[in-house]
Amino acid sequence: MSNSHTDSHVKEIDGNVSVNRNEDKEWTPQSWRSKPIRQGVVYEDQEHLQQVLNKLQHLPPMVTPSEIYKLRSQLREVALNKAFLLQGGDCAELFEYCSQDPIESKLKVLLQMSLVLVWGARIPVVRIARMAGQYAKPRSSSTEKVEGREIPSFRGDNINGYDPSDRKPDPERLLRAYFHSAATLNYVRSIIGSGFADLHRLSDCSLRHVRSDRTRQEYQTIIDRLADSLDFMRVIGADSPFSPISSSLYSVDMFISHEGLLLDYEQCLTRLLSDPETGEKKWYNIGTHFLWIGDRTRQLNEAHVEYFRGIQNPIGIKVGPSMESNELQKLLDIINPNKEIGKITLITRYGADQVEKYLPAHIQAVKASGHIVIWACDPMHGNTKQSSSGVKTRYFNSIIEELSKVIRIHKDNNSQMNGVHFELTGEAVTECIGGSMQLADADLALNYKTFCDPRLNYEQSLDVAFLIAKYYEK
Ligand code: PEP
Ligand code: MN
């Protein structure tokens, strides 16, 4: 395999010349176009699509190679069991979530979860939000029944609209996706840079709205003990905003991610830039720090895997029950031929009652392959059920069951769960059943807001963080 590039390829991108299909092994940002594709989008107005893609190709990067490298080096620590990965956010972001309150509340819950994990498990946490670009959704069926009518499925705000009258793919939405991602990320950067994650200001962020006394008390204990530690550090002169040693008390890194589903979009945001260490030119997806391949689009000889094998970003691969062990090994070799430690995060999602059947063989297959990956558990996607009222839901208990089984199976196989991947929101939605607030099936209707999969709400997210921290408590 070669990630090499020539001037002619650069010209191809600018001039939209199609890829040379004889050079099967040569990777370019558009070489995926010569492969079969799943979940592809057919646009009626090709000219309009082309105009949009030309525009997208010239818009500035949202993230830089240095940031991507920083994340890669942190993920290397995760893969080596020296840090823990927390990834979470909406199943599908909508353009309307690009607004002050939803952004703040999502960051707040991720930061509070990570604090609980750092405090309890005494391990650094790498935070990646499913945010600022999580707009495209893979669907199992191209149509869905809405108010008795079979209409094209909603495929995410960057393809079509949720409103039943707006289901035709519209190229203009790709541009809107870029600008909504950029505005979201801009606000994330601004508030993180302005003390939103400052440990000294934690008490500003109370858990007033949390119903469970126990969760509130447990969190308050952390805050009080932390305040004590900070006070001690201040007295001995070890805590100053200007000292690089204590800078992590004042802010954190927050990276962003989305599923790399819509390759027309991803291609336009793939740029040839200098490696921050060697100066060598390499291809980076500059629309996000971390991209993952969904469970429905990870076929070895198809378009998505072809796209993913050429970029420098760290990459997630969803691994479900249909993954064969030898397929997993081949996938790792294709996407990470140099076996870089932590380049790949395997996000496993089997379901609480299937995990014992599949995970051990996958762990053994990866060990035999010589790859050192991050093992992250997504306890959401294998545990989706229909509620009695017919909406999609997930039981908190199944989520915890899959998580605890994954932790144990890794231990039994001389491996380690290195991280978690959740669908969650900072708001008080009622989409998953259970948790310390004891949400019941009948409560789902109270505030069921998701446009795709059910998310953990604010309290349920904190519950999960406390439970994981307890597993790892030293
Ligand atoms: C998702 O993460 O929203 C998703 C669709 O997951 P998966 O590809 O694992 O089904
Ligand atoms: Mn989902």
UniProtKB/TrEMBL annotation:
UniProt region (Disordered), positions on chain: 1-31
Cofactor(s), names only, from the UniProt record: Mn(2+); Co(2+); Cd(2+)
Pathway assigned in UniProt: Metabolic intermediate biosynthesis; chorismate biosynthesis; chorismate from D-erythrose 4-phosphate and phosphoenolpyruvate: step 1/7
EC number: 2.5.1.54
Keywords: Amino-acid biosynthesis, Aromatic amino acid biosynthesis, Cadmium, Cobalt, Manganese, Transferase
Cofactor annotation remark: Binds 1 divalent cation per subunit. The enzyme is active with manganese, cobalt or cadmium ions.
Family (UniProt): Belongs to the class-II DAHP synthase family.
Reaction equation(s) it catalyzes: D-erythrose 4-phosphate + phosphoenolpyruvate + H2O = 7-phospho-2-dehydro-3-deoxy-D-arabino-heptonate + phosphate
Record-listed phosphoenolpyruvate binding positions: R130, K318, R349
InterPro entries from the UniProt entry: Aldolase_TIM, DAHP_synth_2
GO molecular function: 3-deoxy-7-phosphoheptulonate synthase activity
Gene Ontology biological process terms from the UniProt entry: amino acid biosynthetic process; aromatic amino acid family biosynthetic process; chorismate biosynthetic process
The protein's name in its UniProt record: Phospho-2-dehydro-3-deoxyheptonate aldolase
Biased composition range(s): Basic and acidic residues: 1-14
Residues reported in the UniProt entry to bind Mn(2+): C91, H381, E423, D453
Keyword match Heme: no
Manganese recorded as keyword: yes
